[in-house]
Write a structure and sequence with these properties.
The strands form three sheets. Strands 7-10-11-3-4-5-9 form a seven-stranded antiparallel sheet. The protein is 12% helix and 32% strand. The protein contains two helices and eleven strands, in the order ββαβββββββαββ. The chain is mostly beta strands and 216 residues long. The longest helix has 22 residues.
Length: 216
């Protein structure tokens, strides 16, 4: 067993898109975050991502990976109060990029949380994490794994947190690569307060940014 947490995630292939969706083997869906947090985040997220989209439109988008691109990267995962709540590991393979997230107890609120790859490797503003920019591969109307007009390269399956706030997660994407995510100013993994419905714009209704990890 590769995770020490009580939560075990398995993965199901999402067609030809090359994304493996984690299915959490846990009971119930827990709290999904307060409604007012989601409303506020949707308002600010659309404005913020629109501001950054032009500058980063072609950044981090090259996801054609060869065996020579294999490598790995690790990072601390920082919560909304600026304290470390877990870790992020990325490992590039010849057919995709594996991401593993481990969250300590009390790290997240119980239930589903959206998570995405963001354009800037900056987690220096705990509580908002807006300095991480918009989604990798951001484009108008393109968000969502279930969006017929999507998806963006930064879109990922949701993560499930257990009743004690801990989480274990693993997924694979071939929509970007480790070399693309670490070039220039790097990138970030963002976890949101609530789940991503994988269709609504611009972030699937996932709400506030509650955790951040720099990928460099």
């Amino acid at each position: 067993m590769f995770l020490t947490h009580p939560l075990i995630c398995s993965s199901l292939a999402l067609g030809a898109l090359g994304i493996l969706l984690p299915t959490a083997l846990a009971e119930g869906h827990g709290a999904h975050g307060a409604h007012h947090e989601r409303h506020s985040e949707e308002h600010h997220e659309g404005h913020h991502e629109g501001h950054h989209a032009d500058h980063h439109a072609n950044h981090h988008d090259d996801h054609h990976v060869s065996p020579a691109d294999e490598g790995s990267s690790t990072a601390a995962l920082i919560g909304s109060d600026g304290s470390e709540i877990g870790s992020l590991t990325l490992k590039q393979g010849p057919h995709g990029l594996m991401l593993r997230v481990e969250v300590s107890p009390q790290g997240l609120s119980p239930g589903w949380h959206g998570l995405h790859l963001h354009q800037v490797g900056d987690c220096s503003d705990p509580g908002s994490y807006t300095r991480s920019g918009g989604h990798v591969g951001k484009r108008a109307g393109g968000h969502g794994l279930m969006n017929p007009d999507g998806m963006e390269a930064g879109d990922l399956p949701n993560i499930w947190a257990a009743a004690d706030g801990s989480a274990g997660y693993e997924t694979v994407t071939n929509q970007t690569s480790l070399s693309a995510l670490t070039e220039g100013d790097g990138s970030a993994l963002i976890i949101h307060a609530g789940p991503d419905d994988h269709q609504a714009q611009p972030i699937g209704g996932a709400g506030a940014r509650v955790a951040c990890g720099v990928i460099s």
